[in-house]
Structures
1.
Amino acid sequence: MSKLGCACGHTIKDQTDHLPYKGHVLPDLHLDDFFDWMASEAQSYIVALREGQTQKWLLDRGYTQDYIDLKLSDAEVLHDRIHTRFLKLKRDMYECSNCGRIHIEKNESNHFVSFIPDNQKRNAILSADRAE
């Protein structure tokens, strides 16, 4: 999505990263499975790394030789793997900076359901400081 029209008339733009009015929702039904999968994939990669079999590990998971030839770090490989899985499960969420409406993506990409906050104002719920 690059633009989303809010009922108040404001246009919400998504054309860069690290937006203070954008977030992601991971449905609770996917949460345990996602973290179990992530731990299993990381463990599997570590075993392949110890055995010198990371190329086979990547090929077994559908990566191409072109990807292998990039010679990414182990962290980059795991990041790509985990991020790709997360993208399949998450839903986008936006807060209108004008009226505070929350727009949450439905199961279908680029279809949103909107909610008006009880206090009917922008609450900046997605612009909180990052927990490190």
2.
Amino acid sequence: MLRTILACTTLMPMLLACAPFAQADSISPEQVSLVDTTCMQVMGLRKGEYYFFQCHDSLAQSLAAKTDGQDMAAAYRDCRRRGLAEGTAAFSTCMLDSPARASRPQSMAVADTTAPGVAAGHSFYHMPPRERFQHERYSCAQLGLLPGTGTFGECVTSLEGAMTANPD
């Protein structure tokens, strides 16, 4: 039992350190640039910092979820247009095989990070909690997520959790 606990406490930080790199494979280079820019300009972080990696991982996961949701919606529409009945094996198989679900790089313009309500260049480490929350919200908006949607809320919650994680 003690061996298991020691192994988990030793391996877990190493596995978590690799998480940002694993996520980078599921988003395009343009999207990685958008995430990096957002973490630096909106959140006030610098590359190489613990919280930068936390921010990057959180936003990359949110962006990948957004893309997957868009692909799933396109696959659904495509299979409905083919006349397949929802809830059937043929419909489900169609959705899995849909060209809309095929991984494809997406080109994205780097968003304007000078949004009202966000002081660009303000260091993350000097923000009071209320201001930090605003920056987290604007970071999710920079990804094109719509405020008031579940995906937007999940992005903000994930980023807020990542930004309050203890680096020790």
3.
Amino acid sequence: MNMSRSAVMCWVLVGAGALMAQPPMLPIVRFINVRSVSTNSKELNAIGFDAIQAAWKSKGINLAVERRYDPAAVEKAANVIRDMYGDEGQKVRVEYTVSDIAPRSLQVSFEVIQLCTCN
């Protein structure tokens, strides 16, 4: 089979285009931290990480160590944490940060901040 130079070049360009069209590989989550912060004299009753992970799993949120990072899952996970504290009668705000860890890894940190229950 004798292909012309232009036909070979077309196949090379098509192959390169297919590779470039694939979405980039998302980094891997290496660490997940949840830290609670009390802002008044009544301590915040922390919820264990195992219970939080179980709630994420039951709600189909795919956030776990050694899994691909999904920004939408992190936002949903923060909402689940907030709701869990709310179910226990605690008013909180949940903030999160995502930090790069070389190579192509991340740490996801949640901070559960107690809201003032002052009257």
